[in-house]
Structures are given as C-alpha cells and as structure tokens.
Design goal:
The chain is mainly β and 462 residues long.
C-alpha cells in the first residue's frame, strides 16, 4: 500500500511543483438567483466561444422563476448576464443537448418534474424557438440522452418520479420521437443513468443505479432484437445504499469499471473483468461521513489518472487517482478559502478556457460560478526528448500522430473530460492513424503515450 501511494505521489510531483496553486480564485457569474438545477456547455450562438445553458429551479411548482436560460461567452473567460430563453415550465430540472430536427445544430431538451419532456429549437446565432412537447408528459426525476438502440440516432431515457420506472423515448429521425416502452418498473429510487459499453461489444449499455430499504442494485441493460436485456452488476439486500454511479477505468486495464457513491459516505467500485464478469463491492475511498457528495470523475491534474471530485456545503475537493484500483490519501482543495454563498447543490466540469484542463463550475441557491484550473500551465512533460504532433487540425475523418518514437497508446477525451476513444498497441507503432468517424463535431484532447513520454494535444473535429 505504501509503495503504491508513493508511486502516485512521485507522479503527482512530476506534474506539479510542491507550492503550485492549481485552482484560481472563484469567479461568480450570477450572485442573485435560484439554483441552477442543471447546466451544460455549447457554442450555441456559433461565434467560436463556448456558452452555458442552464435550468433555474425554485422548488415551487408554476413559479415564473422556473426558467431555461443562457450565459453568452464574451471571450477572455467573461460572460454576459443571464438571459432567459423560456419560462414555460412548472418545475424544470434538467437540460441536455441533442440535435432533435437533424439540422446540424444542437437543440435543448428539457425535463420538468411536473410536465415531462420538451425541446427548444436552436435557431442559430443565439436565437431560439418556442417550447415544443416530446412524447413523454408524466412526472420525471431526470433523463439522459444516448443511442440506446444503436441506430446512429440519440434517444432519450427517462427516470419516472411516480413509480420509479425507466422509459425509452426513441428517436426515429427527422425530428420525430416516439414513446417506445417502459424499460423497467424498479419500484425503488433511481439514483443515476449512464451510457457506456462495459462489455466492449459495440452495443450501447445503459447502467442504472437504484436503491431503497430492501435492495440495492446496479443493473446493465442492452437493447437487443427490439427488446431490453438486463443483467445485474450488483444486487444486495443490505446497506450501504448505492447512489450515483460513474463508468471509468479505475485500474488502467483498458476496461471501464463501475464506481458509486454510497449512504455510508464511501466510494466503492466494481472491477470489470470483461465478458460481463464483475467483482463484488470494493472500497475505493472512505470519508468521515461529513455529508460529502460524490460529484465527478475526471483527470483534474493531468497525471493520466482519473480523480474523484467531492463537494459539501461551500467546499469542493478532489482525491487523486492512482490507476491501481485505489485513491491517494491526498485531498486537494478546489475552493480554497473562497466564501461561497449557500450550499453547493450541483457541480460540473468543462474546459471553458480551452487550455487543456477541466475547470470546475458550481451552483448554490445563491450564486453560480467557477474556478479556473491551472493544471496545464503548471504541468511539465516527463521527458522533453519526444515531441508529438497531430494533423490535420481541424480534422474531419482521420487524425494522424507524428512522433520521433513509436506510440504506445492514446486516449481521446471530449471537452467535458469524458473518455470517448482509446487504444493500446502491444507493439508500438510509428504510423498512427485514428478514425474519427464516430466523434461528433467539437473540441477534443488526445493524451499520447510513448515510452516514458506523454503529452496532451488539443484538436478540433469538424
């Protein structure tokens, strides 16, 4: 154990000086608002800068302050005041991006606890259409967007509040969505929905975490031959309750594992052995149960390992990943001495300044703001002997890596820090060509490894 933690410490020090300040002071974007219950990032006005789209929830049904809004990116890490897009909601909770009408622009899909799903057309240049209903008008807690039936179109999976059930709203193309089916009547709380491919069979997996007083479950669904097939990653009649689950490669073996927060304030993981075989529940990190929420998984310090982000009251911290199935005991403060107003209810990660690292956004009942991550400015390559180049940039269908030495592996992350593609070569290659056909247009980062040398490059997919 000591050797493993020493290894993680050495890696950390290779990237950061002992007195380096990783996160800057907080920047408040709005100091007078109801809580942003959900927020996402996209260049919605086509000016080349990433804007912020958000839902504002009051917790009171039919209040006019239940809104969908946006903050225009003015450049140089500054934003406009909040601009309302629509207030035609009763208890709005969630916003996601999806090109509903297939015109090449990401539209806004909105979830409302009282009235269900709707969408708002992105007209381009910062203009929006009016609210339009989607074929789900019942109570919901949340929803997620992903290609459930592997037809190349993004569908919607809804978690229903009344009855705690899952529902499939299918995208048939050309702006048409149909209510397909109830996936599962769980009758327990649904804590999270995530898309992935745990068994690496090129078929979308839906990972659902549920729990209650009787049974805790993590369930994997696949859509095969027009029907949902389920299998259990975890099922237990005892505590701890399992809460939100994340999919990432804990032990760097090339397969995504399942990591979950829990009712005893610990973080647990289920090792993915492949072929739909998983370990039992294994402690990853335990806290002192001071009501910290497990918020995100991402490589915040650019050491190549995924870190775990926690938040509590007015504080946000993270623990370093080690890539060996456990976390470092080191806790890094993101918020520092900042006096955040109110209790943090939501966080999100995005590289808003496009410098190669993930910045941290937060929302409370009183304010909305962010902390700049300086990891890319502080990091130093482990070896200056090897330089990498990627071309063409922007790229359309293929990306090439040029290096003095052969490439051992690469990982591609989107602007939110999600791993979207990776490869490890048993025999290092000098002619590395990457097919980008499965990636959507946008900004990406590629983490390239060659021997002891590693570098992160940014590229654009058109």
């Amino acid at each position: 154990m000591k050797q493993k933690l020493l290894f993680a410490f050495i890696i950390s020090q290779a990237f950061f000086g002992a007195n380096a300040q990783q996160f800057g002071s907080r920047t408040v974007l709005n100091s007078s608002l109801h809580r942003h219950s959900s927020f996402v990032f996209h260049d919605i006005d086509d000016d080349g800068d990433i804007d912020i789209l958000a839902t504002t929830s009051t917790g009171t049904v039919s209040s006019s302050a239940n809104q969908v809004c946006w903050y225009k990116n003015l450049g140089n890490e500054t934003f406009s005041a909040r601009t309302m897009i629509s207030s035609a909601y009763e208890d709005v909770t969630t916003v996601r991006l999806l090109d509903v009408d297939e015109d090449g622009k990401k539209d806004l899909v909105i979830g409302d606890r009282e009235i269900g799903l709707s969408w708002i057309k992105n007209m381009g240049s910062g203009f929006f259409g009016t609210k339009q209903d989607l074929p789900y008008n019942s109570y919901l807690t949340t929803f997620e967007v992903g290609d459930m039936n592997n037809d190349g179109k993004e569908d919607i999976i809804v978690a229903q509040l009344n009855g705690d059930s899952l529902h499939f709203v299918r995208n048939t193309g050309n702006g048409t969505f149909v209510y397909d089916s109830m996936i599962y009547a769980i009758t327990d709380n649904i804590y999270s929905i995530a898309f992935g491919d745990l068994d690496q069979d090129q078929v979308t997996d839906l990972i659902v975490s549920t729990g209650g007083t009787t049974t805790q479950k993590i369930i994997k669904f696949e859509y095969v031959n027009n029907a949902f097939v389920q299998s259990f990653i975890y099922s237990s009649p005892t505590s701890p309750y399992v809460y939100q689950s994340f999919l990432y490669d804990v032990d760097n073996d090339g397969k995504d594992d399942v990591v979950t927060g829990s009712s005893d304030c610990g973080s647990y993981w289920f090792k993915n052995f492949g072929n739909n075989v998983y370990s039992g529940i294994t402690p990853l990190s335990m806290t002192n149960c001071n009501n910290y929420n497990f918020g995100h998984v991402a490589d915040l310090d650019l050491d190549g390992f995924q870190d775990l982000v926690y938040f509590r009251y007015g504080q946000i911290n993270y623990k370093n990943g080690t890539g060996i199935g456990e976390l470092s005991t080191t806790i890094t403060s993101i918020t520092g001495n900042s006096a955040i107003e109110g209790e943090i209810g939501r966080t999100n990660l995005f590289d808003i300044d496009e410098d190669g690292d993930l910045d941290v956004f937060y929302s409370t009942d009183n304010e909305f703001g962010w902390f700049m991550n300086n990891a890319s400015a502080l990091s130093t390559p482990e070896s200056e002997a090897v330089k990498f180049m990627v071309y063409p940039n922007p790229a359309t269908s293929e990306l090439n890596i040029v290096s003095i030495k052969a490439v051992d592996s690469y990982k591609i992350y989107d602007n939110a820090g999600k791993l979207v593609a990776n490869a490890t070569f048993s025999n290092a290659i000098t002619d590395c060509k990457i097919d980008l056909g499965q990636l959507s247009s946008g900004f990406y980062f590629i983490d390239i490894q060659s021997g002891s040398s590693r570098e992160i490059k940014k590229f654009v997919k058109n």
